[in-house]
């Protein structure tokens, strides 16, 4: 097969897949499909679904979309689904397929409900015809624009030009218009006191609009383009707008890629802006900001409370409540005759420049002083401007966590207000993405390897570039028929902070056989309970460190630190390769498996934030290193080791299948061609003694960290029903790895990028301690379960048996000892896997000994408790424990998989 780019094909497949119409993509695949059984007892009885945070949410942000897994061969691909409350009331639902088993049966389905659903704590998903919404969401895909009608609001989306959204109407009333993306670029960082930086305003320019879903419950419109000023275009963006039947809200998912020069392209502000027509009297124009929790600031453009003269209790109460005041003729004339003398405050601003504090200010208009209103800790990220005849609410998820952010209202005293949600506040100073040091004289590979020995940073000139990194932000907009009551504002804010999500229970997900070797939480014996307690302690400690150490910020939120500095009582945030974790040793996997087992909302939200971060910030989406991730370091993009082990699709697929998130789906599609990165960047360049020219038919690719990343991307594409080449490469690579002498024990092979085959290189045995800890264990388990490939199974079991085996056992089978290997506790789960597959109780006992010994991890007698450090030793009180992120992640994965595989042998 000739080597070719398939990215355009994949983007098309993504759009089709969102509509639930993709099947197998080759005649060969169709020929392998066997007819699955009709709706089984599982579907007849129904799957019990609940809300992630429990109870029934006060408000859906727009609607809710979630995923459900199905056991192999039980649900045919054309199956229809119905949803009802536990009390039996039918709920309109829209369903589409997101993954298939190799026999053609459904593996994952996605389901969507709108905001007008019966409030219930539990729902039941069954086979059957879905109930139809009272008014379906409809989409008109015209030549020049797309119009979406939810039955409550109508939104017009131009296919070209500077407007993201041209208008949002509710009935005959235009609530908002002229939605646009705004970027302020500055040509220097403003380091000196002169403040001589030049600022330019760029506006988002739409290049392509795609309708990905068109109802009846959910519609999705994807908008792609770049920011433009004059002759320059940069910062490519993707914005998806989500609409739900019967809803007055629009969910927006905004993603952009940084493609500038970090030394001269400084983002001063980045946001999304709308105009809101102002129709009512100044005293009937209202502004709302949500504070922390249920707190709400309620203001009017022209306030009539607190005056020297009283307009009347009914008037005051109406204004505070956001209702139309009684006719001005009924007011006390001492007020009504002097309204023109009461200042009208048309501009409001809420800025959250750190995770610890926000400030609200207002002014009458430009050219006059700002007046401080109030301040607090962590704002919810919701604002509103409007009147009793309609208004616009706008919000940003993770508002304070992704600081510096800002909500602005301008000109509310005029004919139109302008509202801006700033993803990067223009008052925070320019975004500085330059590398953090001058290289320290590390101009040669030898010097760089020396630097690795002291700070653990793999530095190389020019490699610390942010060119190609990305960030995704979630927003909400509501076109409201009137100013909402304060309690309603609080409900909207809660929905922005934590969008309600429907979930299937751990028992059902486990019964479906997805994601390999894990079982739901089990405390049925003291030995199991001890491990479960430790897993909880590990999760709680690391999750609480986020707040204690303030691991927040636009580029940082979602990641955690790698290693701890006991002397300073801080994580090593400034020490080379010991700082940000960047998915090192599969922290992402540990958190997702912890959620799968426990169903804990905190675990899901922690893993969700990490997936958003690591899939965007830690991976290159443009440029020569596209599809590669960056090793852990002081800056997420700073280390010179650009590797597939970090961009690993295995870290993203949990969130995709559990939520059907289209942006995550894009990232997964992109990685299908990540093997091409081996043509442009030699991972062994600093160790080679001879010139190297990559051969596309004989690339030296590792069968551990390299292949696991490739295989997980191919597997995900195959099960989603996408590019058939992904399936071909996956199966070819499995077959040829197994056919090489010593299989996985070789450590690498000569890879052909055209068809995915391996052939032996010169090395007979090369076993590294990191090979299996970046998703290899998980993908091999899934692939063996999917394919039953006997040769591949034997090759993998050999690796599993021998890694922690004796030198004599290793030499007897492979010809040489593996040497002194690290991470033996982490590899206890490989021993456990071999024990189960081979029915070997001695291996099972060995696996538990390896786990309890805790080599490079936590031994059985390890102290998992934390201690509080306070006073002058630290800047602020913190919890400290003898734990590291790498050890916690691998202990967690080893414990979870050993319990699943040989828990009965404990």
Automatic annotation (TrEMBL):
Domain PcRGLX/YetA-like central beta-sandwich: 137-493
Domain of life: Bacteria
PROSITE patterns named in the record: TAT (PS51318)
Domain PcRGLX/YetA-like C-terminal alpha/alpha toroid: residue ranges: 499-905
Domain PcRGLX/YetA-like N-terminal RIFT barrel, residue spans: 46-127
Protein name from the UniProt record: Tat pathway signal sequence domain protein
């Amino acid at each position: 097969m000739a080597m070719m780019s398939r990215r355009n094909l994949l983007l098309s497949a993504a759009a089709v897949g969102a509509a639930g119409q993709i099947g197998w993509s080759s005649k060969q695949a169709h020929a392998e499909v066997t007819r699955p059984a009709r709706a089984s007892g599982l579907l007849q009885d129904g799957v019990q679904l609940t809300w992630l945070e429990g109870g029934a949410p006060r408000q859906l942000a727009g609607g809710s979309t979630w995923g459900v897994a199905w056991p192999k061969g039980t649900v045919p691909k054309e199956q229809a689904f119905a949803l009802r409350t536990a009390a039996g009331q039918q709920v309109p639902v829209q369903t589409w397929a997101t993954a298939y088993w190799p026999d053609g049966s459904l593996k994952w389905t996605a389901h969507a409900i709108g905001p007008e659903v019966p409030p219930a704590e539990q729902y039941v998903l069954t086979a059957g015809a879905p109930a139809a919404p009272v008014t379906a969401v409809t989409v008109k895909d015209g030549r020049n624009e797309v119009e979406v009608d939810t039955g409550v609001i109508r939104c017009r989306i131009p296919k070209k030009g500077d407007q993201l959204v041209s208008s949002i109407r509710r009935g005959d009333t235009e609530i908002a218009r002229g939605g646009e993306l705004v970027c302020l670029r500055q040509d220097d960082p403003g380091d000196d006191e002169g403040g001589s930086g030049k600022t330019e305003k760029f506006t988002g320019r739409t290049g392509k609009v795609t309708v990905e879903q068109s109802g009846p419950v959910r519609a999705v419109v994807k908008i792609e383009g770049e920011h433009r000023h004059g002759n320059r275009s940069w910062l490519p963006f993707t914005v998806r707008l989500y609409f739900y039947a019967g809803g007055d809200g629009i969910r927006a998912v905004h993603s952009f890629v940084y493609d500038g020069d970090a030394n001269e392209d400084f983002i001063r502000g980045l946001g999304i802006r709308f105009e809101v027509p102002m129709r009512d009297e100044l005293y009937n124009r209202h502004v709302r900001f949500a504070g922390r929790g249920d707190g709400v600031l309620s203001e009017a453009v022209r306030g009539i409370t607190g005056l020297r003269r009283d307009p009347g209790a009914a008037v005051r109460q109406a204004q505070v409540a956001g209702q139309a005041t009684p006719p001005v003729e009924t007011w006390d004339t001492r007020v009504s005759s002097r309204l023109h003398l009461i200042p009208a405050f048309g501009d409001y601003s809420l800025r959250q420049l750190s995770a610890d504090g926000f400030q609200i200010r207002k002014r009458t208009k430009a050219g006059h002083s700002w007046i401080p209103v109030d301040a607090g800790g962590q704002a919810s990220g919701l604002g509103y401007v409007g009147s009793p005849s309609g208004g616009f609410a706008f919000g940003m998820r993770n508002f304070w966590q992704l600081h510096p952010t800002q909500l602005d209202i301008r000109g509310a005293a005029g004919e139109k207000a302008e509202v801006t949600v700033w993803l990067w506040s223009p008052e925070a100073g320019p975004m500085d993405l330059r590398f953090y040091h001058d290289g320290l004289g590390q101009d040669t590979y030898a010097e760089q390897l020396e630097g690795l020995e002291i700070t653990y940073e793999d530095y190389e000139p020019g490699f610390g570039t942010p060119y190609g990194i990305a960030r995704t932000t979630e927003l909400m907009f509501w076109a409201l028929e009137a100013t909402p009551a304060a309690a309603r504002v609080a409900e909207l804010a809660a929905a922005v902070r934590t969008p309600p999500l429907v979930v299937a229970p751990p028992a059902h997900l486990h019964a479906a056989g997805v994601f390999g070797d894990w079982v739901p939480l089990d405390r049925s014996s003291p030995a199991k309970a001890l491990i479960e307690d430790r897993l909880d302690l590990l999760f709680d400690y690391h999750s609480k460190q986020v707040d204690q150490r303030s691991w927040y910020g636009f580029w940082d939120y979602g990641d955690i630190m790698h290693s701890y500095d006991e002397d300073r009582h801080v994580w090593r945030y400034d020490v080379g390769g010991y700082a940000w974790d960047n998915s090192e040793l599969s922290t992402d996997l540990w958190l997702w498996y912890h959620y799968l087992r426990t169903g804990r909302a905190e675990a899901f939200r922690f893993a969700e934030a990490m997936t958003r971060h690591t899939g965007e910030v830690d991976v290159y989406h443009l440029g020569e290193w596209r599809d590669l991730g960056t090793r852990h370091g002081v800056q997420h993009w700073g280390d010179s080791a650009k590797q597939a082990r970090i961009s690993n699709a295995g870290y993203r697929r949990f969130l995709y299948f559990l939520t059907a998130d289209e942006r995550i789906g894009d990232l997964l599609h992109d990685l299908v061609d990540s093997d091409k990165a081996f043509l442009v960047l030699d991972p062994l360049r600093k160790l080679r003694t001879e010139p190297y020219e990559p051969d596309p038919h004989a690339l030296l690719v590792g069968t551990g960290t390299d292949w696991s990343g490739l295989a997980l991307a191919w597997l995900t594409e195959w099960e989603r029903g996408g590019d058939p080449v992904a399936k071909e490469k996956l199966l070819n690579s499995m077959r040829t790895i197994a056919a090489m002498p010593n299989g996985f024990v070789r450590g690498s092979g000569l890879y052909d990028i055209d068809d995915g085959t391996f052939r032996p290189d010169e090395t007979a045995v090369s076993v590294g301690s990191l090979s299996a800890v970046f998703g290899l264990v998980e993908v091999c388990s899934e692939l063996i379960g999917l394919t039953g490939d006997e040769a591949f199974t034997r090759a993998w079991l050999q690796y599993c048996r021998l890694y922690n085996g004796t030198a004599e056992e290793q030499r007897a089978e492979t010809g040489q000892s593996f040497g002194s290997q690290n991470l033996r506790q982490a590899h206890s789960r490989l021993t456990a896997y071999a024990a189960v597959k081979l029915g070997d109780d001695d291996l099972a006992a060995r696996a538990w000994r390896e786990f309890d010994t805790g080599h490079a991890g936590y031994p059985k007698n390890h102290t998992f408790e934390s201690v509080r450090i306070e006073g002058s030793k630290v800047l602020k009180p913190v919890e400290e424990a003898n734990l590291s992120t790498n050890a916690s992640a691998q202990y967690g994965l080893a414990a979870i998989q050993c319990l699943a595989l040989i828990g009965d042998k404990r």
